[in-house]
């Protein structure tokens, strides 16, 4: 089961479009679910995601136009409960212990958040945390070195293999991380 | 006598054809029998009778053709017999003369041609004279249908015997010149017959006649094919003899059907190398064609062919020869044609310009000036007609749109399109919808190709060109545009702004200023889409200047100017009655300025934060929006380390105050708990960039949170808040806040355990339970693992 995880596109406020090399990789029909951390910011990007897969979940980022996206969402894929939240509401931003608070509240195996525009994937107290970064490499005043990235999760029963795609210079680099549920 | 039933025209034709074919069959049989017995004269008689069927006036062209095919097939036998006789030396004396006395003219001439062919094949020195003779004699049949087929027979028979040498050893054998004369004469006569068909019969049958003419056109065209098959017809002969001969007939016949077909034929049948060298002649003739001829299609056909030819040519030997000024010739001649043909509709005139641009793009892709020339011509044409704006739905507008899109699609580079001086002026001839549509097309093209616009002048030019998207227009319809379409269109513009970019910071600043000028005049509906991208680009520029501070001594002033620029821009959004967006933009700006180190950047950061606060206090009234906004303000402030105590203190206080003044108790509780972080991980100049770690103030916040929760009437909400607060307590305990004690944790846990059972059994309670048990799980694992330094949970009562 393939799940695309991405967010913080910030189109058109901070970027004009997804990197061409990413667009070429994202082909409709291969992905079952899309989990978006938010800050699309407009309907165009949402419609684009809908062309890649019919099951699209979006949570509200601080710059999203659509006020109807929920602040948080829990989605079950295979044996995993996956929590989704943009992360601008979590103080301090990106702090693992603060994120753990959300994980406990939502009671999820995997917590996905964004906002920092920095890719993260780590285990913490037997739970898995993913930040897909910014798919467009959008500007963030707190970080002068943003690398465009997105994540693809391959969920098979109690194992999730996470592939992170990063655009370093002009090349797409892929890394693989595995997480098993206890 | 019985009356024969009435037959339909189709059945009538079938019947006549059948009858004729039966006679042909029987006469052919007889002819062959006589020839087998070497009875030539009798054979000839039967042949003549058979050929008599071709004298009919009753058959349609289609049926006549079938009959003709059947008969000429049979004539092959006669030809072979005679050839055989001649080759065996059994010459039949004066056969040529003999045959001329046979019966009626149609059979006579067919026999003459057949016999003549045999003579030519066996006596090459008779060739020239015989060919001349035969083509002349066919004049005897002036009936169009019969004449066309007769001359076709002549052409087909002589297919392989036409002399094809430049010079002959024996003059009487003929040269290619004789063949040319032969075919040109045959062509001219056939064309005259073909044209005469137009005027035969009643005017109400015109449509049928024209259809029949169409069916027969290939008979005439075959003459041109034959000319093209003569190998020794080189460019010189083509230019001096062949083409003038053909064109003279075509122009002088003054028949639209013939002219349209034959001009096409010339283009298709002769090689492109010839066309390239005879363009002036050909195009001049186009100007003289009958009014009913669609000259536009002929020219487009020729241009397309030559364009394909030039693209196909790889090696230096082929391709457009440098002495052929292809574009100039077409440009001049097309102008002459337009001049001559005053009745040509305007959209056709524009179509011709389209074909000229296509020519320029395909054959001379580097010559931007050629394209500009065509655009200038179009502008002049419009000016002469005193044309105002063209309606979007009109054919002229459609053709003009085609014209304007070609350079965009071919260059795939908006900067190259900008080099076309006449592009913007020509665009003005569209009405509002046309201009807007083209503007959107230009922007989309730039986005697809990721074309950067790197100078302020170019940015100015582009934004002026696409002004229907950027600003209200004087000829804009008053009806409201569909909001979704509008949002999409403005989104396109917003994305485009990121392409207005230079790597040179000073240039980039000029670009942003220019953009601001244009977009700022777009009105309240547009600026919410277009100003934010400018602001973010400006923030990024500030970081650029910061990075280059060793190279630019003015960097501080420039940074200050940039933040002033942003402040003004965001204020413009506030004036347009927006609140949430400007608030967020100010917060982002505050973070950015906080990281700058130019003089008085702290003051600017404070200003941005105050602006955000003002918006929060004055403009945001919805309680959900308020909680979101204050959380964002607190979260942003937590990240900033640039404030001295003088500024940090009032901001901290404001945050805590605002949180505690939120309307709903749960919101207050959560707000206050969030503020606790300001006193722990917040940084200021006073703490020298280190985390403040004011444990006492943190605890105060948390205790306040507990107090507020206790005031909540809904027990479910209360317990939920307690569990959340418990987690906050744990967070700060684990971060090392010594003010938070294990006793406090135990107490809170106890309280939760008390209240939990009192809750109604429902999904919400389930979730709270889960939350609580997860929290306890976490504590348990910490208790059991001894590696956490100084964070012992000893004494904790779960």
TrEMBL record, chain A:
Localization in the cell: Cytoplasm; Endosome membrane
Main localisation: cytoplasm
Ranges that cross the membrane: none
GO function terms (MF aspect): metal ion binding
Domain (Calcineurin-like phosphoesterase) ranges: 1-157
Matching InterPro entries: Calcineurin-like_PHP_lpxH, Metallo-depent_PP-like, Phosphodiesterase_MJ0936/Vps29, Vps29
GO biological process: protein transport; retrograde transport, endosome to Golgi
Keywords (A to Z) from UniProt: Cytoplasm, Endosome, Membrane, Metal-binding, Protein transport, Transport, Zinc
CDD domains: MPP_Vps29 (cd07394)
Gene3D superfamilies: 3.60.21.10
GO cellular component: cytosol; endosome membrane; retromer complex
Family statement: Belongs to the VPS29 family.
Listed NCBIfam families: yfcE (TIGR00040)
Cited PANTHER family: VACUOLAR SORTING PROTEIN VPS29
The protein's role, per its UniProt record: Component of the commander complex that is essential for endosomal recycling of transmembrane cargos; the commander complex is composed of the Csubcomplex and the retriever subcomplex. Component of the retriever complex, which is a heterotrimeric complex related to retromer cargo-selective complex (CSC) and essential for retromer-independent retrieval and recycling of numerous cargos. Component of the retromer cargo-selective complex (CSC).
Protein name per the record: Vacuolar protein sorting-associated protein 29
Organism: Gryllus longicercus
Lineage, top ranks: Eukaryota, Metazoa, Ecdysozoa, Arthropoda, Hexapoda
UniProtKB/TrEMBL annotation, chain B:
Topology within the bilayer: Peripheral membrane protein
Keyword Ligase tagged: no
GO molecular function: D1 dopamine receptor binding
UniProt keyword annotations, A-Z: Cytoplasm, Endosome, Membrane, Phosphoprotein, Protein transport, Transport
A GO term from the CC aspect: late endosome
GO biological process, one term: positive regulation of signal transduction
Location relative to the cell: Cytoplasm; Early endosome; Late endosome; Membrane
Main location (coarse class): cytoplasm
Biological function: Plays a role in vesicular protein sorting.
PANTHER family, alphabetized: VACUOLAR PROTEIN SORTING-ASSOCIATED PROTEIN 35, VACUOLAR SORTING PROTEIN 35
Similarity remark: Belongs to the VPS35 family.
Name of the protein this chain belongs to: Vacuolar protein sorting-associated protein 35
Organism placement in taxonomy: Eukaryota, Metazoa, Ecdysozoa, Arthropoda, Hexapoda
């Amino acid at each position: 089961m393939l799940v695309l995880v991405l967010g913080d596109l910030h189109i058109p406020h901070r970027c004009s479009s997804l990197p061409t090399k990413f667009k070429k990789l994202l082909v409709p029909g291969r992905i079952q679910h899309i989990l978006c951390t938010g800050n699309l910011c407009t309907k165009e990007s949402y419609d684009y995601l809908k062309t890649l897969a019919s099951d699209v979940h979006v949570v509200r980022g601080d710059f999203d136009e659509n006020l109807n996206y929920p602040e948080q969402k829990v989605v079950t894929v295979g044996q995993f409960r996956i929590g989704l939240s943009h992360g601008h509401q979590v103080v301090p931003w990106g702090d693992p212990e603060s994120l753990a608070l959300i994980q406990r509240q939502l009671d999820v195996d995997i917590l996905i958040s964004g906002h920092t525009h920095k890719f993260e994937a780590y285990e913490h107290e037997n739970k898995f945390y993913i930040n897909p970064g910014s798919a467009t490499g959008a500007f963030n005043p707190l970080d002068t070195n943003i690398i465009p990235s997105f994540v693809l999760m391959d969920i098979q029963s109690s194992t999730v293999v996470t592939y992170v795609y990063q655009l370093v210079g002009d090349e797409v680099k892929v890394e693989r991380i595995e997480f098993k549920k206890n | 006598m019985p009356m024969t039933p009435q037959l339909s025209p189709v059945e009538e034709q079938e019947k006549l054809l059948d009858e004729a074919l039966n006679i042909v069959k029987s006469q052919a049989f007889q002819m062959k029998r006589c020839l087998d017995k070497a009875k030539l004269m009798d054979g000839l008689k039967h042949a003549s009778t058979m050929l008599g069927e071709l004298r009919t006036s009753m058959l349609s062209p289609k049926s006549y053709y079938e009959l003709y095919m059947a008969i000429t097939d049979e004539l092959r036998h006669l030809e072979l017999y005679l050839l055989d006789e001649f080759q065996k030396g059994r010459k039949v004396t004066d056969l040529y003369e003999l045959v001329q006395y046979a019966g009626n003219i149609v059979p006579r001439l067919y026999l003459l041609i057949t016999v003549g062919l045999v003579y030519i094949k066996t006596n090459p020195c008779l060739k020239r004279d015989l060919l001349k003779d035969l083509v002349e004699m066919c004049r005897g049949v002036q009936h169009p249908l019969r004449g066309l087929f007769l001359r076709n027979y002549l052409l087909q028979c002589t297919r392989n015997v036409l002399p094809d040498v430049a010079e002959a050893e024996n003059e009487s054998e003929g040269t290619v010149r004789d063949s040319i004369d032969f075919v040109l004469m045959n062509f001219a006569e056939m064309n005259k017959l073909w044209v005469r068909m137009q005027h035969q019969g009643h005017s109400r049958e015109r449509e049928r006649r024209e259809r029949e003419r169409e069916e027969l056109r290939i008979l005439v065209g075959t003459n041109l094919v034959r000319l093209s098959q003569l190998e020794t017809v080189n460019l010189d002969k083509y230019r001096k003899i062949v083409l003038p001969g053909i064109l003279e007939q075509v122009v002088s016949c003054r028949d639209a059907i013939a002219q349209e077909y034959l001009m096409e034929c010339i283009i298709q049948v002769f090689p492109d190398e010839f066309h390239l060298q005879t363009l002036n002649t050909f195009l001049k003739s186009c100007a003289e064609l009958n009014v009913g001829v669609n000259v536009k299609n002929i020219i487009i056909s020729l241009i397309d062919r030559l364009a394909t030819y030039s693209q196909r040519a790889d090696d230096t030997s082929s391709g457009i020869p440098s002495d052929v000024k292809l574009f100039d010739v077409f440009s001049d001649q097309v102008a002459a044609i337009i001049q001559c043909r005053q009745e040509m509709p305007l959209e056709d005139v524009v179509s011709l310009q389209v074909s000229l641009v296509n020519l320029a793009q395909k054959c001379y892709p580097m010559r931007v000036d050629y394209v500009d020339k065509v655009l200038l011509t179009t502008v002049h044409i419009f000016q002469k007609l005193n044309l105002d704006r063209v309606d979007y739905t009109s054919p002229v507008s459609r053709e003009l749109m085609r014209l304007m899109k070609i350079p965009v699609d071919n260059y795939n580079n908006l900067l190259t399109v900008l080099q076309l001086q006449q592009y913007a002026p020509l665009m003005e001839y569209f009405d509002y919808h046309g201009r807007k549509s083209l503007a959107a097309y230009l922007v989309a093209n730039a986005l697809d190709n990721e074309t950067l616009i790197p100078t302020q002048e170019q940015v100015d030019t582009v934004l002026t060109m696409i002004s229907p998207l950027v600003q209200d227009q004087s000829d804009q319809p008053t009806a409201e545009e569909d909001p979704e379409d509008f949002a999409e269109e403005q989104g396109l513009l917003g994305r485009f702004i990121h392409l207005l970019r230079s790597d040179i910071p000073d240039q980039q600043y000029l670009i942003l200023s220019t953009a601001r000028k244009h977009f700022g005049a777009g009105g309240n509906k547009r600026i919410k889409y277009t100003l934010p991208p400018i602001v973010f680009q400006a923030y990024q520029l500030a970081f650029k200047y910061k990075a280059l501070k060793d190279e630019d001594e003015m960097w501080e002033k420039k940074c200050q100017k940039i933040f002033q620029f942003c402040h003004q821009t965001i204020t413009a959004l506030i004036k347009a009655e927006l609140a949430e967006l400007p608030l967020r933009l100010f917060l982002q700006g505050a973070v950015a300025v906080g990281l700058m180190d130019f003089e008085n950047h702290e003051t600017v950061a404070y200003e941005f934060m105050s602006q955000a606060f003002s918006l929060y206090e004055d403009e945001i009234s919805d309680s959900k929006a308020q909680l979101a906004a204050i959380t964002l303000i607190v979260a942003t402030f937590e990240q900033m380390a640039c404030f001295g105590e003088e500024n940090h203190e009032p901001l901290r206080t404001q945050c805590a105050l605002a949180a505690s003044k939120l309307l709903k108790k749960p919101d207050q509780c959560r707000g206050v708990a969030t503020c606790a972080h300001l006193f722990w991980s917040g940084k200021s100049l006073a703490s020298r960039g280190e985390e403040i770690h004011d444990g006492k103030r943190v605890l105060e916040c948390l205790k306040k949170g507990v107090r507020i929760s206790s005031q909540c009437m809904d027990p479910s909400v209360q317990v939920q808040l307690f569990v959340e607060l418990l987690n906050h307590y744990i967070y700060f305990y684990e971060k090392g806040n010594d003010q938070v004690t294990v006793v406090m944790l135990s107490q809170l846990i106890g309280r939760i355990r008390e209240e939990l059972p009192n809750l109604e059994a429902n999904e919400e309670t389930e979730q709270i339970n889960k939350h609580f048990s997860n929290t306890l799980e976490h504590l348990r694992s910490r208790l059991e693992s001894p590696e956490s330094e100084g964070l012992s949970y000893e004494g904790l009562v779960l």
